Amino acid sequence: MAEIDDSPPRRPTIYDLAQIAGTSPSAVSAVLNGSWKKRRISTRLAERISRIAEEQGYAVNLQASMLRRERSRIIGMIIPKYDNRYFGAIAEGFEAMARERGLFPVITCTQRDPALEVEAAREMMSYQAECLIATGATDPDRIANICTSAGVRSINLDLPGTTAPSVVSDNFQAARDLTRFILERIKQDFGVLAPLYFIGGRAQDHNTRERLRGFICAHEDMGLTVPSAYCFMHGYSASKTEAALAETGIDERCGMFINSTIALEGFVRWFHSLAAPPEFRFGCFDWDPFARFLPQNIGMMRQDVDTMLAKVFEFVEHAPSGTVNIKIPCIFEAANG
Amino acid sequence: MAEIDDSPPRRPTIYDLAQIAGTSPSAVSAVLNGSWKKRRISTRLAERISRIAEEQGYAVNLQASMLRRERSRIIGMIIPKYDNRYFGAIAEGFEAMARERGLFPVITCTQRDPALEVEAAREMMSYQAECLIATGATDPDRIANICTSAGVRSINLDLPGTTAPSVVSDNFQAARDLTRFILERIKQDFGVLAPLYFIGGRAQDHNTRERLRGFICAHEDMGLTVPSAYCFMHGYSASKTEAALAETGIDERCGMFINSTIALEGFVRWFHSLAAPPEFRFGCFDWDPFARFLPQNIGMMRQDVDTMLAKVFEFVEHAPSGTVNIKIPCIFEAANG
DNA sequence: CATGTATGCTCAATCGATGAAGCAAAATTG
DNA sequence: CAATTTTGCTTCATCGATTGAGCATACATG
């Protein structure tokens, strides 16, 4: 069948609209970007142009517009994963808050891969992002340097850096509180006061270190010492956590501090693979709506995403002077497990 | 303190690099975008320019580059939420597969808000996206029209439309299988063959309708009729599902088909709010690593995200002729609950 | 009626990268 | 050695929107 070449009704430009309206491209531009009042275009012409733009299905070419303008209004974010509620909430909240402020959010997920993080940061620079939020970056200062040398501001979220302002959870305090809660609970339920296991995270990771510090501190508060063999830090991986637990004999009737929901996935997989699942009590740093109801779960430490993002956007609007590292308290939620 | 104005080491352009290298902007451009072999630039000059670009921290201005080029290589996706594993996996997989193919993925989350969906689609057009994937759109044809009138291809994912090619789960078959599995299980565990409750989703929603059809069909297969009062479809909202369940008296020892993880959130909240939680068996359409281990959960129907995305990218590369609607089988995973 | 000012537009340069066309010098060929 | 080809670059128009400057015309003022 012979096709008629109606194929490329190419996206209309302001030149096309100007032609149709019998006016100049600059009038069209002014009308469509809202500067027409200031540029003394008559209401009559403005309405006509708007109507024609509508009819023609005109959409501004942001590439051209941003090239000419000084500001792109793009705000970038890199984030490790979308596989848990914490990062999911950060991504959703970030988009919503950016839009509220008339900014264009662009998020890229970097799989905790340092090379991808760097690549993504460079990509954001190329998009002329005005500001980049580095969430949970493996090397925040590296990202901050990339931004600085492009004249772009950056803010660290979740994991702090030393070059750019940072907004993180108060990991130490929250871990200390959660640990105390678990210790008290095993004493109450099992009648023993014994050290907990610490499961998940990376030993080099700032947040893990802070939480481990709070964990150990809460033990000391109660006169306990944590044997180093009680700490399982095999990265943010369910499978590695599961494998590590499977290799070790863990006593019945003890307590565990699970350092992330991803580690919790490994933990529950291991737990349910056991022929005779033992009695435990665990608490988890980070929140999940289903994990809440898992048997033996006694509480989750939920990070306060809304407050963290509010702080981030404060910094977006007024860059703080000097190196700041804001710590946001977490919200403890007793579980029903 | 008097600040020295070293402030704007403005982002260097190819003109700046050309100046430094004592060459022309087009040579710089050719070297930096890889077309220099073809444009007969000497290796010597190419190396010098590359070094200078490196030193100066040059990053191409994609706005300018894309304006000039014919192709943007941007591929857009709109997605409702990031609050469950299904959409999370889609987002992560989409980004990875797009990058593998040398495309720039841009994802926007639209909160199941039809107005936001339209706004986001228009924004993608303005970014000169070459293709838009509409995931779980409330009105896929609306989005497809916006794309078509901008000369952009679109593909529906998760929810089908009539104008653009669609890739969805085989909701009917998977719902039928899941329903049969639950029915058999309650017969085995409770010794009764009784209709199940259907919980979650929207009655107007295509996927819900298909699943309901499979649900009813599986009942008929076993000689059962589903009372209409057994269906609770209060949207994709945990709170509304919870509230609806709280208002109704549901018998002990029965089975339920939960139509999404978000409905499951409402269900478990309701369940755990009861003074004396009754004996149930439930299965859930969609998968979650923790929900898997919830007591009384007997199985989850996991959507095959990798296969769905593979199909989507097939369509991205070779647009299918005519209206196609590909149905991808789901993967049943028996639960340990 | 000359002068001033407000109105309603248009012109043209510009943002940074790209690539077709062109040009000079070097290398090859007959 | 003249003619041709190859090499290695540069020039310049272009993508679409923006915006400072400018230019008629209409209107108001002294």
Automatic annotation (TrEMBL), chains A, B:
One Pfam family hit: Peripla_BP_4
SMART domains: HTH_LACI
Keyword field contains Lipoprotein: no
Keyword Transcription part of the UniProt annotation: yes
Cited InterPro entries: Cro/C1-type_HTH, HTH_LacI, Lambda_DNA-bd_dom_sf, Peripla_BP_I, SBP_2_dom
Keywords carried by this UniProt record: DNA-binding, Transcription, Transcription regulation
The HTH lacI-type domain, residue ranges: 12-69
Entry protein name: LacI family transcriptional regulator
Organism, scientific name: Paracoccus acridae
Lineage, uppermost ranks: Bacteria, Pseudomonadati, Pseudomonadota, Alphaproteobacteria, Rhodobacterales
